[in-house]
Amino acid sequence: MSKTISTRIDDKDAEKLEKIAKKENIDRSALVRKFILQKLKEYEIKQMTDLYKKGIVSLQEAASQANVSLYEIMEYVQRENIHPPDQSKEEIISEIEQSKKLFK
């Protein structure tokens, strides 16, 4: 099921949308929908990688929750230079053991 959402924008921005839509060979509504969906995806990835950075979720969990592939979120983490918090040796060993269970 879909829902209609309306919004107001400046005339200049509407003209920009028209130009881009013409260039992309799609109607303005489709273009706005495409932009909104792209930003929603980016927002979800950012939210989940923030949790990864804090050590709350693993990279795999972040990808799963953001509904993207592990490779896609890995590219984002690399591009944004995001690192998880430092872990103790015991925590690393525990994560390795948990990962082994997932791949059996």
Q: Can you walk me through this structure?
A:
The chain contains five helices and no strands. With 104 residues, the protein is an all-alpha fold. The protein has one domain. Helix 3 packs across helix 4. The longest helix has 26 residues. The mean pLDDT is 91.
Number of helices: 5
Low-confidence stretches: none
Task: Let me know the number of strands.
Answer: 0
Q: How many domains in all? A: 1
Mean pLDDT: 91
Gyration radius over CA: 19 Å
Task: Summarize the entry for a quick read.
With 104 residues, the chain is mainly alpha-helical. The chain has one domain.
Attribute tags:
mainly alpha; elongated; 104 residues
What is this structure's SSE topology?
Elements: H1 11-24, H2 28-53, H3 59-65, H4 70-79, H5 89-102
Helix pairs in contact: 1-2, 2-3, 3-4
